[in-house]
Amino acid sequence: MSRRLALAAHPSTDVLEAANRLLCQNGVLAMPTESYYALGARAHDAEAVRRVCTIKGRREDKPVLVLISDRTQLTSLVTDIPRAAHILMDRFWPGPLTLVFRAALDLPQELTRGTGTIGIRQPARLDLLHLLHHVGPLTGTSANRAGHLPMRTAEQVLFELGEDVDLILDGGETMGGLPSTLVDITGTVRMLREGPIDGQGIRAVLKESGILMPDQPL
C-alpha cells in the first residue's frame, strides 16, 4: 500500500524531499491538480513514465502531458518556443491551457509516443507549483485507469491505485471540471480541444497580436 503525505499550500521541506527521493528512484506519485489528481513521474525518466502508462493501461499511441513550475523548465523539454506560445503563456499561464510544442530529442519515447511533440502546462495550484519547482517537470496525466473516471480525492486514489503508486500527496478534494484547453503551436496554431478556455478566447488573443488574421479560423 502506498505512503500518504499531506501537501500544504506551502509544503514542508520534509514532504518535498520525500517526494524528490522517491522520484529519483523511478518512483510514481499521485498529486492534486486544479481539476483532478494526477500521476507524477519525472519527465526525463523513461522507466518511471513507462510505469505511469502501465498503471493507467494507456494506449501505446497516446502521448503524456507534462506539468512545469515556470517557463525556465521549458528549455529541457522543447526545441523552440514560437511567438504564439509566448503570447498565450503571457495571457493564460498559470492556468488550464496545455500547449503542444516540438519535443526535445532526448525525451523518452514513452512520453511523446513518436509524435515529436509534447504537451506542457503550468498549473495554477500553489502547492503543486512548489512541488514542481522543487523536483522538476512531472507527468500530469489523470490518476485513473484508462476508461475510468478521474478522481478528486486522495482517498479515491488510495482505494483505486494504492497498490501501484509509491506515494500519494494529499491536497484535499479537487475541483473537478473540464480537462485543460489544448492548443498546438508547432506550426499554424490549431485548437485541438476546448476546455475551460474556449476557442473564442484563444482566437481573440492571437488576433490582437497579429498571429491570426480577423477571418482566419483556429
Keywords for this structure?
six-stranded mixed sheet; single chain; 11 strands; five-stranded mixed sheet; DHBP synthase
Descriptive notes:
The termini are far apart. Helix content is 29%, strand content 19%. The chain has 218 residues and is of the alpha/beta class. 41% of the residues are buried. The longest helix is centred in the N-terminal third of the chain and has 11 residues, at 13-23. The chain has one domain: DHBP synthase (Alpha-Beta Complex). It has a six-stranded mixed beta sheet with strand order 7-4-6-5-10-11, with helices on one face. It has a five-stranded mixed beta sheet with strand order 1-9-2-3-8, sandwiched between helices. Helix 1 packs across helix 5. A hairpin with a 5-residue loop joins strand 10 (181-184) and strand 11. The radius of gyration is 17 Å and the shape is globular.
CATH fold description: DHBP synthase
Please give the order of strands in the largest beta sheet.
7-4-6-5-10-11
Cα shape: globular
Number of domains: 1
Beta percentage is 15-25%
Helix content: 25-40%
Query: Total strand count, please?
Result: 11
Find the CATH superfamily: DHBP synthase
- Overall mean pLDDT: 95
Largest sheet: 6 strands, mixed
* Name of the top-level CATH class: Alpha Beta
Structural class: alpha/beta
Give the end-to-end Cα distance, rounded to a whole number of Å: 46 Å
Number of discrete helical segments: 7
In the CATH hierarchy, the architecture is Alpha-Beta Complex
Low-confidence parts: none
Helix-strand topology string: EHEEHEHEHEHEEHEEEH
Q: What is the radius of gyration computed over CA atoms, rounded to a whole number of angstroms?
A: 17 Å
